[in-house]
């Protein structure tokens, strides 16, 4: 029943070699992971979200002054999405290639209706320090739109004898 010239020795243990799909599974998972990264990257870079962030960075005067005309903007890592108040907030990192030097820009966008709006932005200067690109919004209480509801603080009690009338 055995092929001629092949001797089977049950006492001799050899390595177990998987056969079929299990031998190819790690490779297939790797290929699927790389494909998902590529498709996700293409989806984001073709979106209105990315175009809004890229336009903001390309048109920003401070970046143009520090790094020259922007030649290229690429989506970079980290990339983060969170949902405060049930509205998506996306934090993008863009690798910016300028005429004078390269930098990273950090842009935060929120969805308002059907449009994306830049709510915060900063960049890394030539010394490696993070510099803001736009002024942050004041909290609603500072704008006078919300009344402060904190209880008034009680006056400190005077020490010493008290006169009562």
How are the SSEs ordered, and which strands pair?
Blueprint (H helix, E strand, L loop, with lengths): L20 H25 L2 H12 L1 H7 L2 E13 L6 E10 L3 E11 L2 E10 L5 E3 L7 H4 L22
Question: Gist?
Answer:
The chain has 165 residues and is an alpha+beta fold. It is 29% helix and 28% strand.
What does this structure look like?
The protein has 165 residues and is α+β, with helices and mostly antiparallel strands. It has a domain of 104 residues: Nuclear Transport Factor 2, Chain: A. It has four helices and five strands, in the order αααβββββα. The chain has a five-stranded antiparallel β-sheet. Strand 4 and strand 5 form a beta hairpin. The radius of gyration is 31 Å and the shape is elongated. The relative contact order is 0.10. About 11% of the residues have low confidence.
